[in-house]
Design goal:
2 copies of one chain form a homodimer. Helix content of chain A is 46%, strand content 18%. By secondary structure, the first copy, chain A, is α/β, with parallel strands linked by helices. Chain A has 2 domains: 7-77, Winged helix-like DNA-binding domain superfamily/Winged helix DNA-binding domain (Arc Repressor Mutant, subunit A, Orthogonal Bundle); 83-195, Rossmann fold (3-Layer(aba) Sandwich). In chain A, the strands form 2 sheets. A 7-stranded mixed beta sheet of chain A has the order 5-6-4-3-7-8-9. A two-stranded antiparallel sheet of chain A has the order 1-2. In chain A, helix 8 links the parallel strand 7 and strand 8 (171-174). In chain A, helix 2 crosses helix 3. The termini of chain A are far apart. At the A-B interface, helix 1, helix 5, strand 9 and helix 9 of A face helix 1, helix 5, strand 9 and helix 9 of B. The structure holds a DNA duplex (30 and 30 nucleotides).
Chain lengths: 206, 206
DNA sequence: TTTTAATCGTGATTTTTTTCTTGATTTAGT
DNA sequence: ACTAAATCAAGAAAAAAATCACGATTAAAA
């Protein structure tokens, strides 16, 4: 991904992408920036600026080709390039993510889950096996997996993260509310469910 | 929430909050902006600016009082004010969110779940009952619930959202990848799992 | 006490992001 | 053809956010 896409932009790009998928399903071939802008409650020149970033020219009075937009969003966001990942923590959230097929169409390939609960080990979820956590280091090495999706309870988050780092995991998508301590070689992405919700709620609901 | 807290700030506030919780557990009473900044990989003056927004003064050479910071973050983000919500869609994600106890401590109170699958109806999840979706309008009215957390499959998202809106739901926290069409009286918050992940992944993993 | 180093507070600067504006283009209607 | 309306493109302007810089404060060490 040569270009450095700002967080806000990549967020909007995925929203645009969803709209493109919808338009394709409905057989609509072109879409204009005001249409999209109105749908998302943003400015239409914002939409055009974002599309320009994709090097995707529109046609005056007509708009953009839905198919082309969808393709270049996918290319820009790297959907095409599949990335393998492990889910660590086969609790409810872990299982939910394992079943979340959208990941696949967005280029994130969940290979397996890990847990320390013997009852869960060897179960299958959405064709993915749950392994005992002790098997992780070996599988990381054999499969060259760099990404872990962390869905364990908060109190174990740091200890498990340390274990993942020892096992050579390079990227942690952190769904726990803990703020992980990691060395500079490891990148953490905090999925901050409450943060984004509070922002939403605070604006209106008092 | 009188003040209009920008999205990025409220995001950082929840991260600060997690760190405060951790410090309290460890019995540490003060924390400095450089400590926090280093942990999150951001600038320390940024942290101070955010704290200033909370009207929370620090002490030179010492830092801020952890307890005070935690309290004022909670006050500012409205943790104190409990908000009731329904989860619509008792699939894996819906069940996971129903079990996610952090919601409660952040002031979001899940009252019940709804689904159209007769097999799921009347089950209990984390002390919350699953009702048939047809019961929703009545319960919205009786309990005065304004928030729905939407976790149905994408293809039903718009239809279910329309139903929620007819039932007088005012805020939709949308976990589906669909971009909902709603009237201006209804606010949608898109939880864009892939968007935030792609942003993370794009930066490094190519 | 005096010095030193860490830390705060805040105004200035820079960078990033969004919105505004204007002119060109294109389709559809006259 | 000509006109009108919608739309794109792109630069300018404005707004927002992040970073820098530095004086003031304070706790601990010399």
């Amino acid at each position: 991904m040569s270009k450095n896409i700002p967080e806000k932009v990549s967020n909007r790009l995925t929203l645009y992408h969803s709209i493109m998928v919808e338009y394709i399903e409905e057989g609509i071939e072109t879409i204009s920036s005001p249409q999209i802008a109105q749908r998302l409650g943003i400015d239409d020149s914002q939409v055009r600026k974002d599309f320009k970033l994709l090097n995707n020219a529109g046609k005056c009075r007509v708009g953009y080709l839905v198919k082309d937009l969808k393709d270049s969003i996918e290319k820009t966001l790297g959907f095409a390039k599949t990335k393998d990942a492990f889910i660590v923590g086969a609790g409810h959230l872990g299982l939910a993510l394992a079943k979340y097929d959208s990941f696949n169409s967005y280029g994130l390939n969940i290979l397996a889950l890990f847990d320390n609960d013997p009852q869960k080990v060897d179960m299958q979820v959405n064709n993915k096996q749950i392994f005992h956590i002790s098997k992780l280091p070996n599988l990381v090495e054999r499969l060259g997996v760099e990404i872990a999706i962390l869905t364990v309870p908060r109190q174990y988050a740091q200890a498990v993260a340390d274990f993942l780092i020892d096992s050579n995991i390079k990227y942690i998508w952190n769904f726990t509310p803990a703020v992980l301590k990691v060395p500079p070689t490891v990148k953490v992405w905090n999925e901050n469910l409450m943060g984004s919700f509070l922002q939403f709620a605070c604006k209106d609901i008092i």
